[in-house]
Amino acid sequence: MIDTKRMIRRGSSVLVALGLGLSLSASAETLRFGGNFSVDHSSTKAMELFAEELEKISGADVKAQLFPAMQLGGAKENIDQVRSGAVMGTWIGISYLSRTVPELEAVSLPFAFSTRQQAFDVIDGKVGDVLNEKLAEKGFIALGYMELGFRHVTNNTRAISSLEDFQGLKLRLQPNQTHLATMRSVGANPVSMGIKEVYGALQQGVLDGQENPYSIISTKRFDEVQTYLSDTGHFYDFIVVAANLKKFNKLSSDRQQAVRDAMATAVAWQRAKAAEEDTAARDELVKRGMIFTPISDDLRAQLKARSHGVVDDLKAKIGDEVINTVMLELNK
Questions:
Q1: CA 63 to centroid of chain Cα atoms
Q2: CA 230/CA 212 separation, integer angstroms
Q3: For the whole model, what pTM was predicted?
Q4: Which residue has better confidence, 9 or 63?
């Protein structure tokens, strides 16, 4: 004989268990991040490490879903998505945020950094604290700063070995006014352009050249459409992992800490990996056929002198506070 009461009790237990399972599943948090770096770039690999660490640290209570290689659009679209809250965050070249937070240009001073460690010391100290405050005012929170690296000029016109060689070169730059002003100050003709358009513009001769870290020149295969490579190192560039401040603040304190801890691991790994890959990427570009011309100390001094007025103009634009803080840290 069938025990209907027992079946009802069992059924209720199953439903309760299923309900609990659904409730537990629904309570897990998934954070979406969009980026424009290629899948083989060290920053994307670092974000994959972040996702692994986050799931491990939180016991799968928080997960990260990544959309690299412009799957959600270019840099501008990614920033807009973070601002609106459509995604939690993005990992992006810091210059792309400078239109929204102009104070970020303070770490884009021409020829300011001589080593990557010097750059890390600045961004991890008082300067980073000030910039994080400015980001917060615009609704962002910086979860970490990775290395994009020293930027170098490539072109199809001539090897660069003197100040005159910059004259009239039509170079693609990021949408950063300090970057653009610097290239104008040394006689080049800079053009602001999104990264996804650059290869085609170089291939068609719309541009003479561009500037990027060796790793980007390599992963974007610009060597296929560029002949000459220098080591100008005119700017040091950061990748900022920027998130929506309101969405981040809505996370529990435990979840926030899990995100911070996982990101700290990912940033440390990426910085070491980027340093390792920098020289390797340059050597690979030469191996593929690019003509490498090192910049002399004398030329570097000339370029720095020519671009000195850019710093004064930036002070007039964003005030002295952040720039003076940067200069103090650099002079320690």
A1: 21
A2: 11
A3: 0.88
A4: 63
